[in-house]
Amino acid sequence: MSRRQAHHGDTENTEVKAFKATTCGAVAIQSLDDLVAVKRLLFNGQRDQYNGPVLDAAHGPRHSGGDGRNQLHYTQQGPTMDVVHGNLYDYPKYYDLLFGADWRAEFDFLRGCFDRHARRPVRRLFEPACGTGRLLIKLAQAGYDVAGNDLNPRAVAFCNARLARHGFPAAAVVGDMANFRLARKADAAFNTINSFRHLPTEEAAEGHLRSMTAALGEGGLYIMGLHLTPKGPPTCDEETWNARRGHLAVHSRMWSIDLDRRHRQETVGMTLDIRTPSRQFRLVDQILFRTYTADQIRDLFRRVDEFELAETYDFGYDLDAPAPVTGRTEDVIFVLRRK
Q1: Residue 79: its pLDDT value, please?
Q2: Domains of the chain, CATH where assigned
Q3: Are 273 and 81 in contact (CB under 8 A)?
Q4: Which of 311, 270, 309, 272 is nearest to 289 (CA)?
């Protein structure tokens, strides 16, 4: 998966209250016994040992009894939670809250990479697949000249509106990360949360890297984070995390639906449970990612030899703890340098 797991709650019988909040109230938990059973199912992977109410990713809670008995359906306490099937990227406000909540670690890591690994002064930055520009705005406020592109016009409009609101040029454009040209070369570029894997073919991935080599000045960096497919079973195939801003709260779950190693495709499900004072609803989406093993990504880098590998890290963003890539590596950040 592409994100670190994070659960947040407060302390009813404090633990029951906390878990209700974590699941946006979707599971009807009335006692500590219910809580223990559901936690065991959701977080410890013991599905076969549990016959009580469980949380279904797309359609809400259901009963897990394998023989079909007592098929209980729970809904949000109070009004039923609406289910909306849609594209996550068409909801930039919720996307930005969810993925922008932990910007500081990435921000500090990027600036540290610029200082440590670039062989040119870093002033001009570019983000392919920039989305809402959650990092572009922070970097612009830190004094960098920023630009980005993205296929989703709603995300680009959100990004540009925020830049303009803070007095910066509307520097994001609708464009394809697999084939683009910049009017002025950048000193560094970044793509840190798996967006590279949206490129559906080897040709598109190679086109992206060649576009990046043309976009960067000599000695510039491309910092690219993605999830590799390890040899053997993955250590994690589900992640959840929460974010809140004012009266808006989002609880997200992402899980692997299918991993097709032969065709190099992974189907990932995602739900966002969104709560505002006036509405509660669940956004349901599926995302198709291209897969890469350590050997496959190395082979791709060899074919685009204008880059050299400066260093590799994991998603801990610790500049003092480089992480060598092996066949078991999953989350990795490649720091590529333009020759």
Answers
A1: 52
A2: 14-79 (no CATH), 88-92+231-290 (2.20.25.110), 100-229+295-338 (3.40.50.150)
A3: yes
A4: 270
